[in-house]
Design goal:
heterodimer; A: alpha/beta; Rossmann fold; 2 domains; six-stranded mixed beta sheet; four-stranded antiparallel beta sheet; 10 strands; about 35% helix; B: mainly alpha; two-stranded antiparallel sheet; 2 strands; about 75% helix; about 0% strand
Chain lengths: ~260, ~300
């Protein structure tokens, strides 16, 4: 099998382009020679077993752990070496697998911070009004004046969405936003992701729930041991024997409603 | 914001009446309290707002004292010597911050603690310039009475504490203060949200240095004589921290309240327990911080909505 690449057959510059990107931690290669591009406006899924390097890849894209090799371009600019706050200001927003609110600040202040520092809005009512809009959009309007620490897990995940949106991103990286949610909450989150995509935001979703991936992602890329083992339209990827072997499990191939990792 | 500024100005107005008592004891105590207020408010920028436990107050105080003294030795008028002291502390804090603020938590605390010791050794060995261990005498201001001098330094400290307070209020309500609160709550998340954490922390550290530097120079002029162990005393760093913790970290009035509370305790305990006063004072502080971890100011908030601690 030839080396898969995720390049779309398009002549427009991709919004995000990773070119032979690797990231080492000491002797460990967490991300290995990944070449990948994301086109503006698409919703792309990043899947793979635990420890495959998915979160590391997001950290590489956002400057938390800069690439040891390779280059990353965002909207045509080289962003391989930028700091996280610079990535945020250029329009790359991310949510965290483990939610990261400012616990003692109000929910509104959490979102206003994103609107101010990354979204470039003025301190005060401009940032606050925009933050309030995002909170209403994700359904947290009622909670705006509460300290973030009082929110339930499902609400904190929504807060992450609101913060991400308040950053006025061009690219939104969603790192397991559905982990720990029940099925009703996942359905609500799915609606939210669709609504965000409808606003024209490009989205990259890291997700274990295939239901989410199959519902919203037109394209899927698969990471395994830090390497990209498949990339392409969702139906093609989920039938790829390597993907089935490495991640989805045999039973999944015949019954897509089965849980991922169920290899009986 | 306007309310806080108004209260600050009114408070200064009341304090400005103290010299009218013409009582040397109260003037000395008042000037010390105002200086403590400057130290506490200054530490609050880096320690309270940004959550970085700095022990650099003594370094800034000593640097300011010596800059002011040496500048006057070379003939600079007293007022300009104070300005020079502020500028040198500002510059020093900015450079030091760029180097030290990459460290977090205990590492930053230890590194900032050592700075005063290093400066003290440098001043000790630069005998030509600073008089070394012999100390340095400052010109006595050309004012007629001792009383007038005491009042003058009281007013100088009062003006400085008001300036520091105004800077605190403005910072708290600005983009900088907001970013510092984000850093204090979760620095990694702040970084991800676009806060230039390094620049913000350096700004907070610079603010925590500049007013202390001026206070050091005023102190030097006030006492006419400085020596390294006096102005580079690490106790100044410790006191600033204790005062802010006593009053309420991160708030606008907390550090001032803490400074007043601390000095009152220090003075009362010193009078009642002359032999063991440091021990008793330490014990009192431990008890207060244990039972009022958010400071004396938090008492007022027990009746308000919980978790609502905007100044």
């Amino acid at each position: 099998m030839s080396q898969p690449t995720a390049a779309m057959p398009t002549n427009a510059t991709p919004l995000l382009a990773l070119d032979h990107v690797s990231r080492d931690f000491g002797g460990l290669r967490a991300v290995s020679d990944v070449t990948l591009s994301v086109t503006a406006g698409e919703v792309i899924g990043l899947i793979g077993p635990n420890g495959a390097g998915k979160t590391t890849l997001v950290n590489v894209m956002t400057g938390v752990h800069p690439a040891t090799q390779g280059t990353i371009h965002f909207a045509g600019e080289d962003i391989t070496r930028i700091a996280p706050w610079q990535a945020a200001r250029r329009g790359i927003a991310r949510t965290f697998q483990i939610v990261q609110p400012f616990p003692e600040m109000r929910v509104l202040e959490n979102v206003a911070a994103a609107a101010m520092f990354a979204g470039g809005l003025a301190h005060g009512s401009e940032a606050n009004d925009f933050a309030m809009e995002q909170l209403r959009f994700v359904g947290l309007g009622e909670m705006a004046l509460q300290p973030a620490a009082t929110l339930t897990l499902a609400m904190r995940k929504r807060l992450e969405f609101a913060k991400g949106l308040a950053m006025r991103p061009r690219l939104l990286l969603l790192d397991e936003v559905n982990a720990g949610l029940n099925s009703t909450e996942v359905d609500a989150a799915l609606d939210l992701i669709r609504a965000i995509a409808a606003r024209g935001v490009t989205i990259l979703i890291i997700e274990h729930l295939m239901k989410v991936v199959l519902n919203v992602c037109s394209r899927i890329v698969v990471l395994h041991h830090g390497e990209l083992i498949a990339a392409g339209p969702q139906q093609e990827v989920i039938r790829n024997p390597r993907v089935i072997q490495a991640y989805l499990g045999r039973r999944y191939a015949t019954d897509p409603s089965a849980q991922v990792g169920d290899r009986s | 914001m306007k309310r806080a500024l108004l209260i600050g100005v009114l408070l200064s107005g009341v304090l400005a009446l103290v010299p009218l008592t013409n009582d040397a004891y109260w003037l000395r105590l008042g000037t010390t309290m105002l200086m403590y207020g400057v130290l506490a408010l200054s530490w609050n920028f880096i320690g309270g707002m940004a959550g970085y436990p700095s022990f650099a107050v003594a370094a800034f105080l000593g640097l300011g004292a010596y800059t002011g003294a040496v500048a006057q030795k070379f003939g600079l008028p007293m007022g300009w010597a104070w300005v020079a002291a502020g500028l040198s502390a500002l510059l020093f804090a900015t450079l030091l911050g760029a180097a030290l603020l990459r460290l977090r938590g205990h590492y930053f605390a230890i590194a900032s603690l050592v700075v005063a010791e290093v400066l003290r050794e440098l001043v000790n060995s630069a005998t030509e310039l600073t008089g070394g261990g012999m100390g340095l005498n400052l010109p006595v201001p050309s004012m007629i009475s001792v009383q007038a001098q005491a009042s003058f330094f009281f007013y100088a400290m009062l003006a400085l504490v008001l300036l520091t307070f105004v800077a605190t209020v403005i910072t708290t309500h600005s983009r900088l203060g907001f970013g510092l609160r984000c850093i204090q709550q979760n620095e990694a998340a702040a970084d991800m949200l676009g806060v230039n954490t390094t620049a913000f922390k350096i700004a907070a550290f610079a603010l925590s240095g500049v007013f202390v530097g001026i206070a050091g120079a005023i102190y030097a002029s006030w006492v006419h004589y400085i020596e390294p162990p006096d102005v580079f005393d690490v106790l100044y760093s410790v006191k600033a921290i204790v005062m802010v913790l006593l009053g309420g970290a991160g708030s606008v009035f907390g550090p001032l309240l803490g400074a007043a509370a601390f000095l009152t305790l220090e003075e009362l305990v010193w009078r009642k327990f002359l032999e063991v006063h440091t021990g008793v004072l330490g014990l009192l502080i431990v008890l207060l911080v244990m039972f009022l971890p958010r400071g004396v100011l938090s008492i007022t908030q027990l009746w308000k909505r919980p978790k609502d601690h905007r100044a």
